[in-house]
């Protein structure tokens, strides 16, 4: 049995999966690879995690308390300001070699042979030209927008939504927030950060169809994941054996994402974990026989591990 971090053994497995000679892949069947990505994939781009220390407080607000439907209902202007800032932060960094390697993996395999589930809302995979047909953003995206009318029943229902809208600022009223101006720097005379100016409803992003408010297309605390998307993922998982499960930059503790690893294992998959702490004592304890664990940055490791299928990853062209 190869060592858990044997790059050559992993690459050999990948070649066998692609050629159909791996045991799980029945003769003549296309390979099937599932990936689950988390914040660690974007870490090399320089993006602080949502719960990370640098994002512990936004102005005087706890981000965890702003990412809720209740907060949006109470003060949509404040929540939109927070999301304008998060969009700005995500746009200020670039996709890394890990994002590009996964996009290249998708292009190297037949349609439906690869499904990439990401918990990241940062838009970096789409910006790395990851083919949309193999990408599922489980928690939505900072750059998706949808009408609040999508939550209404009856005649007031509106299904307007848009994906990957990278406009900045979205509306003039959000320009300061989008620029990331540190408004906390100027203190009031009592030394407290100033209260953020209220943004009137009519100045917030509006649905072009029904003039209701648009909201960020992310899954907030207390909200369910997109059931249509989950249904599609479940169907893909159930459609036959899975050869390989890539767990990238995530400790995969959040359900339902974490459940996919077990489902893939049940479907025959060898699990390969690529994460900074993949080779920690705890990480290694979770390994089954034949699994792989590569401790390191996804941006460094993925281009090397996937090279048998994607070739040498070219330096990505600089974004305009
Ligand atoms: Zn609408």
Widest beta sheet: strand line-up: 3-2-1-7-8-9
Question: Which value, in Å, is the CA radius of gyration?
Answer: 21 Å
Order of helices and strands: HEHHHHHEHEEEHEHEHEHEHH
The domain tally reads: 2
Fourth-tier CATH superfamily name of the largest domain: TPP-binding domain
The CATH class label of the largest domain is Alpha Beta
**Helix share of residues?**
25-40%
What is the residue-averaged pLDDT? 89
Bound molecules: zinc ion
- CATH topology of the largest domain, which one? Rossmann fold
Tell the overall outline: elongated
Helix tally?
A: 13
Low-confidence residue ranges: none
Cα separation of the termini: 47 Å
- Please report which band the strand proportion falls in: under 5%, 5-15%, 15-25%, 25-35%, 35-45% or over 45%: 5-15%
- Going by CATH, the architecture of the largest domain would be 3-Layer(aba) Sandwich
What is the SS-derived class? alpha/beta
Oligomer: single chain
**Can you count the beta strands?**
9
What are the SSEs and their pairings?
Elements: H1 7-19, E1 33-37, H2 39-43, H3 63-66, H4 69-74, H5 76-91, H6 97-108, E2 114-118, H7 124-127, E3 135-137, E4 140-147, E5 161-162, H8 175-179, E6 214-218, H9 227-238, E7 244-248, H10 257-266, E8 270-275, H11 281-285, E9 292-295, H12 298-305, H13 307-310
Parallel strand pairs: 1-2, 1-7, 2-3, 7-8, 8-9
Antiparallel strand pairs: 4-5, 4-6
Helix pairs in contact: 6-12
The protein binds zinc ion.
InterPro entries: DHS-like_NAD/FAD-binding_dom (IPR029035), NAD-dep_sirtuin_deacylases (IPR050134), Sirtuin (IPR003000), Sirtuin_cat_small_dom_sf (IPR026591), Ssirtuin_cat_dom (IPR026590)
Family: Belongs to the sirtuin family. Class I subfamily.
Pfam families: SIR2 (PF02146)
């Amino acid at each position: 049995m190869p060592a858990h971090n044997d790059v050559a053994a992993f690459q050999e497995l990948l070649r066998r999966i692609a050629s159909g000679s791996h045991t799980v892949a029945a003769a003549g069947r296309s390979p099937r690879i599932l990936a689950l990505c988390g914040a660690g994939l974007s870490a090399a781009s320089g993006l602080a995690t949502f719960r990370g220390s640098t994002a512990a407080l936004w102005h005087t607000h706890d981000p965890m308390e702003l990412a809720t439907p209740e907060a949006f209902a109470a003060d949509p202007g404040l929540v939109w300001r927070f999301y304008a800032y998060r969009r700005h932060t995500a746009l200020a960094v670039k996709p890394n070699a890990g994002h590009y390697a996964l996009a290249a993996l998708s292009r190297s395999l037949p349609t439906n042979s690869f499904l990439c589930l990401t918990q990241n809302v940062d838009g970096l995979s789409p910006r790395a030209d990851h083919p949309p047909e193999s990408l599922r953003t489980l928690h939505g995206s900072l750059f998706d927008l949808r009408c609040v009318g999508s939550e209404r029943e009856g005649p007031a229902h509106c299904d307007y939504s848009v994906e990957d809208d990278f406009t900045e600022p979205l509306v003039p009223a959000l320009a300061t927030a989008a620029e990331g101006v540190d408004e906390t720097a100027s203190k009031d005379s009592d030394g407290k950060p100033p209260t953020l100016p209220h943004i009137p409803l009519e100045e917030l992003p509006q649905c072009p169809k029904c003039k209701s408010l648009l909201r960020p297309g992310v899954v907030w605390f207390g909200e369910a994941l997109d059931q249509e998307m989950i249904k599609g993922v479940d169907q893909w998982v159930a459609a036959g054996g899975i050869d390989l499960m890539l767990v990238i930059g995530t400790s995969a503790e959040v359900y339902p994402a974490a459940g996919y690893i077990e489902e893939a294992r049940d479907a025959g998959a060898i699990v390969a974990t690529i994460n900074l702490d993949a080779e920690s004592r705890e990480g290694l304890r979770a390994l089954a026989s034949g699994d792989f664990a590569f401790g390191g940055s996804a941006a460094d490791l993925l281009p090397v591990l996937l090279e048998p299928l994607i070739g040498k990853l070219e330096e990505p062209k600089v974004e305009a």
